[in-house]
Task: structure prediction
Amino acid sequence: TSMTVPDSVLLGVANGKNPLLTVVPTFTAESIEQSSPLNGVKNTLNITLTSDVDLAATSTVTIAGLTGTQTATSGTQAITSTDSLYGTQASWDIVGTLILTVGGTATTAGTPVVVTIELDNSATAQAAATPTVNATLEAGDVDGAISSTSMTVPDSVLLGVANGKNPLLTVVPTFTAESIEQSSPLNGVKNTLNITLTSDVDLAATSTVTIAGLTGTQTATSGTQAITSTDSLYGTQASWDIVGTLILTVGGTATTAGTPVVVTIELDNSATAQAAATPTVNATLEAGDVDGAISSTSMTVPD
Result:
């Protein structure tokens, strides 16, 4: 006569208790994306993992290929995970390997678990990482396994950078255009400077742009110097220092990569003759705990 089988779930597998039913476990979803492509900043990786079997306590998940960071090797790297299923710490190796360990409660088949980890981006530009994920499944004397597979990346824009959400893609931002010209060379008159700035990344709200070297005016230092800017992206006021420094602050709406922003400011020309200024421009890019930067560069003049 036929034997009775339980027809019940085991490790998240339908009828998994039935004798010799066997599955090859997989990750049915394994995605990864980043919070910032800017060089040198703190970057949060968001990792989502879904398996078709339960992962029992002490099972491990290894994500490899997270290359090019500046985060030192640590056996107690801080992480977060859904319901703390992978605890609050993981093993990290600077070669690019992250090992997650399931805590006291198993993960559930078919239920996504989100893990976040903050790493330090490369100081230099680099292509996106191509991470893989595998797992060792606690199962007694002989552990099970999920074979290594490539992780899914979003291939979407972030801060104006193509594929900027892909993990550990890093860019060194620049101004692709930075020009300045005046309305009058006559001594002692009101002189409107027209400044055009184009960056290759979005400048987030509260980012600052510093133009230095505007020497020789008679305009007094002011923290509320009147300006105009395209769509008021830099507001209607700026910080001006008579030594020749103008600091612009991005308002509530970010600037857009590749789109010129025109700023005008009226200054009082020198009472005496002087050579043209040789202004430079740099920027501090709001990016959380550690800001990004656009290095100082000479501005283009019309000649």
About this structure: The two ends are 99 Å apart (CA to CA). The chain has a mean pLDDT of 97.
